[in-house]
Amino acid sequence: MKILLLGESSFVHSTLRKGFSELGHDVVFMSYGTKFKLCPQDIDLRRNMKWGKLSGILLILKLLINCRKLFGNDIVQIHNFQFVPLKVWLNNVLLFLLKIGNKRVVKGCYNDDIIVFRGQARGMLMYSDTHIGTKAINELENKARIAEHMRSDYIHCCEYSNKKSDALLPCLYEYYVYYNIPEYKDKLYYMPLPMEIPVITKSDMLNVQFPVKVLVGIQKKRDFIKGAAVIAEYIERLSLENPGKIEIKKVYDVPYDDYCKMLDEADVLVDQLYSYTPSMNSLAAMAHGAVVIGGGEEEYYDFIGEKKLRPIINVRPMDDDYNMNMLRNILLYPDKIEQMKYEGIEFIRKHHDYLLIAKKHIDLYNQLCY
Q1: Burial of 43 (0-12, 13-18, 19+ CB in 10 A)
Q2: SS in 3 state form for 257-315?
Q3: Coil, helix or strand at residue 2
Q4: What is residue 30's predicted lDDT score, i.e. its pLDDT?
Q5: Which helix H or strand E contains 344, and what residues bound it?
Q6: Which of 26, 25, 30, 115 is nearest to 66 (CA)?
């Protein structure tokens, strides 16, 4: 099968590319990267801003030079409605051409957009990074972010890409909930995030002693969305109450490869406060044998049919007592952390192994094409 992956978010397409290639498919990956994370791609679509506005024209020329790779594919998978770093209306034009020149176009629902923000505002879940129920939170911090997606051109581009795509592939339970509305439900397919599993020896995986090593990964400009710094405050409080039992290491905006090396030395990773489910960071941590503090609500486990494994220390925004109890009942007990480390690796193998997820995509692609 001939596959084109366009755009990137948290190494999803990069990991799928590896899986598709190993399964024997012809795959090309075009991307403009993923912010501060170093992301390899076959064709680099980043704009060289030293050329100013001319950089957009140069990017269009690069797309024209590579037009043979843009067309004639069985599947084109875009990561978002703005899958190339050009004006959104140009993304619409390119999507129109991709629909004509390829068998099928599918869209990965990997990022926030107007559909997500509308669902959050309606309180479709108990909490999110913008709302507790229907009550808005972090309003000042979220103002510019939400306003951008409320622009008429962004709304049109998002809705156009949803309409034109042959399938919509939410990667998180919460995205599935927000997109599970009448106009999209017939083309909606939950596709878990793909993750490579490094080789971990049993002794490396199970050995936990005091002090428990906690890694706090903070994205400075996005922590109001993630909430890692807030979780760190809970852990610092717990550490002060129990001297010598918890060691905290904070890192900021670390490239992905360096981040993975740090995970190998951590017992526990602090990830997200506002997420219902594990993100790519959380999955990477579990794959490396670390326990995650983040999103792991029972609704999510029910959704994926997981009855036994509970590898995540679940936390919730604005619920101090709940969070402190969850952390206190696990971080002060190395044997519990060891058990959760084991469950985390088993969870990744069962639900997120990159070859398993690549095969799941291929099954859907065959269904759509033939």
Answers
A1: middle
A2: HHHHHHHCCCCEEECCCCCCCCCHHHHHHHHCCCEEEECCCHHHHHHHCCCCCCCEEEC
A3: strand
A4: 96
A5: helix 334-351
A6: 30
**Tokens coding 203:** 């002794």
Give the sheet arrangement for strand 312-314, strand by strand.
246-252, 212-218, 268-270, 291-294, 312-314
R_g (Cα) of the chain, nearest Å: 21
- SS3 at position 56: helix
Mean pLDDT of 112-139: 97
**Other beta carbons within 10 Å of 179:** 22
Query: How open is the CA angle 302-77-113, to the nearest 5 degrees?
Result: 65
- Contact in structure between 169 and 111 (CB atoms under 8 Å): no
Burial class (CB within 10 angstroms; exposed 0-12, middle 13-18, buried 19+) of 356: middle
* Per-residue H/E/C for 5-26: EECCCCCHHHHHHHHHHHCCCE
CA 365 remoteness from chain centre? 21
What's the CA dihedral at 218, 219, 223, 227 to 10 degrees? Answer: -30
CA distance 83 to 100: 17
Model confidence over 231-287: pLDDT tens digits? 999 999 999 999 999 999 999 888 777 877 888 889 999 999 999 999 998 999 999
Query: DSSP code of 185?
Result: G
- The region that residue 137 occupies, defined by phi over 0 for left and psi between -120 and 50 for alpha, beta otherwise, is beta
